[in-house]
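Protocol step 4 of 6: structure prediction from sequence.
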Amino acid sequence: MVRQLGQYLSLVVRIWKAPGNRGHRLGRLLRSVVWLMNKKGARKTWTLPVFGGLKLRCHPDSIIALHVVQRSEWHDWDTARFITGFLREGDTFVDVGANIGLYTLPAARIVKGGRVVAVEPSPINRARLQENLALNGISTVQVEPCALGEIPGELSFSDEDALAHVELAGNGPRVPVKTFDSLAPQEEITLMKVDVEGFELSVFRGAIQTMQAGRLPVILFEMNHSYLRYGVSADDIFTFLRSAGYRIARYEHDSRRIVEDHLEGDVVAFTPRGAQMIQERLLT
């Protein structure tokens, strides 16, 4: 009982302190309580407003939906601010591991005449992504039903919602695997977001031609130690990117700066051109 109470209090503190809840703290706490009751009872799907005019269908078993309910669409504060602040009309955005479309949706609205490609191997998440695109009347996003890797083919896949991941030695459902180079738009890809639960190095190796051609100036990706399941280290990932001409840092939105230490969580890799773009679009 004491332990459970401590967990609830810790959750309340996280919700209260979440940057995306500034000005809405009590409302978000109340919404979180109602959501918890809904999950245990009626299990109804909610539709929530996000990013000023968009709508997100939130299923009660979705981890991303839980984050949005508790800490708003800005729950990954620096990441969400980077994506929505960096993109411009006419840009090309590739969302690798798009899940239910939380970042695909605002990107599609921002780039307008540009291009958005959403890569999502999970059948469940992909169906919800397409549901959210339809809900918002967005028909311009190119949805790729595959995983990305170094070599095309098929791999086993563990479909665990926001924790879904490739299993190199698994016997679960098979998903098609493509290389980024094989599906990358031929124009400059302004921003690629990668959230693949540890499979990042394989994704990057499959993008080497696009990198070498100078068409991938900025990559935003997750570093959460999931790479260990593939026998990969953080140094392996950073060494590969640096050898391809990238610097690696974190974006801190509140201070409007790029910092090159404590490279965990969501980090950004960028070429010299990417550095100039970040400076002009986010830091000036």
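Step 5 (inspection) to follow. The chain has a mean pLDDT of 95.
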